[in-house]
Amino acid sequence: MAAIERDFKRSVIYQVYVKSFCDSDGDGVGDLPGVTSKLDYLAALGVDYVWLTPFYPSPQRDGGYDVSDYRAVDPLFGTMGDFDELVAQAHRRGIGVMLDMVLCHTSDRHAWFQRALAGEERFRRFYILRDGRGSSGPGDPGEPPTNWQCAFGGPAWEWEPRLGKWYLHMHDVSQPDLDWTNPEVRRACADVVRFWKERGVDGFRFDVVSLISKPEVFEDTPDGSCRRLVADGPHVHEYLQELVAQAGIDGMLTVGEMAATTLGNCIRYTRPEDHELSMTFSFHHLKVDYADGDKWALKEPDIAELRRLFRDWQEGMQAGGGWNALFWDNHDQPRAVTRFGGREGAGERGSSWDRVGKMLAVLSFTMQGTPYIYQGDELGMANAGYASIDAYADVESVNAYRLLVEGGASADEALRIVGERSRDNGRTPMQWTGGHAAGFTDGKPWLAVPATVGKVNAEAEDGVEGSMLEFYRDLVRLRHDLPVLAEGRVRFLDAGAGAPKVIAFERTLGDARLVSVCSFDARACTVDGGDLALGDGYRRLAGNYDDEPLRADDGSLALRPQEAVVYLQ
Do 441 and 307 have their domain in common? Predict the structure, then answer.
């Protein structure tokens, strides 16, 4: 089956969390035939690729990112025939299919780990096994090899008597990390990627791939946090180059999820001459509302820091020849429209929900990089707002609630924090209609539908002038039609002292100049006109108000609350 080939710099990618997108058989869980049934919707949105989250066999301890068989389809999501039909139907509509590759770790139910437990030395070498500190000999676990903590809370090491060793799990205890120093592991992972490429897949997203190369020496850290120690390890570029070559995917659309990464490494990951990846996801911009860097400690978003991060990464990747993936939401994030101030008037024109949702879209679609739409972004889907911890399914959220209460937080406060941060905010069922279960399923959905569904849904927004959905369709068209958005250089602009919560930048290509101005301020503000240089010949290209802001004789812009406006010369 011929692969879809698109210039990734001109493409828009849509992420589908399969479990929550569309349920075709009434069991309350999304599936592959459900995705196929909505391909016309994606084609009408105008996207170039659809990225599918894992649908492989899995115990579902981590939403399918705990894979027990890399070369099969979990019956929960359909059959291999359903997958082949999805690819064929997507290709008929000119849409490429991207798959998630979870190659940093497996499920503990994977045959490799089970054979390691059974004593096969070959497969013991597939995983990172260590003796405990202070162990007196076989059978005595001693203490964990280091004080490292896993991403979901608790120790990153688990004693396994059948192995007679501690195994490393950077994520859930059911997700033992693979040992990429073993050439056989690297060959096996390349075989997995090649298997799916040969089935017609057009691109790949590599889960936490910056963590595959562990440090040469395992040692304690001051606070037990080890992601920065493990990220961008000593052989990660070598391993990626080898994977790309062995799997035969050089030149295909690829993106790496980079946990705790650096700008310098992301340049190396994405420079074409290094033959690693097309682009990277980095997450620094989604930590600007973490108090003291703690995900579970709330604060208002620091927009000055957000602006600095975007400037440094945009201009830095450009200078080094790298490429960004642009996104606000995914299956691991709360909804950006909520976290950046769009808390009132869901589904209503002119509300903070409307202004913020469109402003975030403008910012993402006009920066340098490839824009990603996470399912429901285009509708303005917001945080779940569940009233009880029992409504949450995510292992990280449930663990965090327990740890917060154990640390002295009241049940109400712990629930409020989890409500702001839970990954389940991004996993609620796709809101197709305002009817039963948001039109996601005829049965009982695996995760409850947010109360906003009455006004925020595809049926209510389709074809309605000024709706969030139509706004996104317009932005996708602009991304396809304007070379300055795909190829133009980026430079951040000084908005002036009167606009501390404004992010402004220009994109330039030849004689074309585009200026994007986005305000996170819930109040009106004034942007200095000097650096904007909006002289004669500029027209308003897009914005989240029906008319353009007042432009004074000195070129300054009087922005209204949470206004976004784009000018093109």
Answer: yes
Residue 257 a catalytic site member: yes
- Mean pLDDT estimate for the chain: 97
320 and 268 part of one domain: yes
Asked whether residue 482 is assigned to any structural domain, the reply reads no
In single-letter form, the type of residue at position 108 comes to D
Enumerate long-range contacts of 214-218, CB under 8 Å, 24 or more apart: 214/128, 214/168, 214/177, 214/180, 214/181, 218/130, 218/145, 218/146
Residue 234 has pLDDT above 60, yes or no: yes
Tell me if residue 348 is catalytic.
no
- For residue 478, tell me if it sits in a domain: no
Confidence of residue 45 (pLDDT cuts 50, 70, 90): very high
Q: Is the pLDDT of residue 5 over 80?
A: no
**483, part of any domain:** no
Alpha carbon distance 89, 16 (integer Å): 16
Same domain, 333 and 368: yes
User: Of the listed 207, 378, 461, 531, which one is catalytic?
Assistant: 207
pTM (two decimals):
0.97
**Count of domains forming the chain:** 3
Q: pLDDT > 90: what percent of the chain?
A: 97
The SS3 assignment for 550 reads: strand
Residue 529, domain extent:
489-568
pLDDT of residue 153 exceeding 90? no
Q: Are residues 192 and 148 in the same domain?
A: no
Residue 559 lies in a domain: yes
Residue count (the chain): 569
pLDDT at 2: 58
Count Cβ neighbours within 10 Å for each residue of 475-494 and write b for 16 or more, e otherwise.
bbebbeebebbbebebebbe
289 and 415 in one domain?
A: yes
Question: Which is catalytic among the residues 66, 257, 377, 506?
Answer: 257
